[in-house]
Amino acid sequence: MSLTASPSVVESRPPDRLGVLFEELAELAGQRNAIDGRIVEIAAEIERDELCGATGARSVAALLGWKLALSSANAHTITTIAGRLEEFPRCAAGMAEGRLSLDQVGVIAAGAGQGSDEHYAGLAEVATVRQRACQDNCVSCCSRLSLGS
């Protein structure tokens, strides 16, 4: 993987160059989201099959932090989603398809009620992470944000 800009990007005018860079960022973000989705699935499998004990790690989050060099917060976000994967199949699919990020689904998994997968899968596509963080009072939150209920 090259970390230098391609000649076509370097020679472009700034607005054109920025557009090309934004397109590349969008593509990379989608790939990253899909990778995070698979990591969540692996974490769920490790938890479900109780494989963590064989590693000496105290928890799946600690195991992920160790093996992936993650912060404790990111490792816990992954395990929070993994623990609710079956409750949020549409949100999980959005991650696997690259449309939803770990942060987006993490906020949902941390506080959304059961049976709300369809609602949050749609909301996550149009709202920011900060907007989703007010999900404890989602109806009034969505009304204030003019996103519907």
Structure description:
By secondary structure, the chain is an all-alpha fold. The chain has one domain (14-144). It is 66% helix and 0% strand. It is built from nine helices and no strands. The chain has helices at 7-10, 14-48, 60-68, 72-83, 89-96, 102-111, 117-126, 129-132, 138-144. Helix 2 (14-48) packs across helix 4 (72-83), helix 2 (14-48) packs across helix 5 and helix 5 runs parallel beside helix 7 (117-126). The model is unreliable at 136-149 (pLDDT under 50).
Q: Could you give the distance between the termini?
A: 43 Å
Strand fraction band? Answer: under 5%
- Count of helical segments? 9
Estimate percent helicity.
55-70%
What coarse outline follows from CA principal-axis ratios? globular
Tally of separate domains: 1
User: What is the average per-residue confidence, as pLDDT, rounded to a whole number?
Assistant: 85
Low-confidence stretches: 136-149
Number of strands: 0
Element string (H = helix, E = strand): HHHHHHHHH
Query: By helix and strand content, what is the structural category?
Result: mainly alpha
Biggest sheet record: none
Radius of gyration: 18 Å
Pfam families: DUF222
Organism: Mycobacterium ahvazicum
Domain DUF222: 23-131
GO molecular function, one term: endonuclease activity
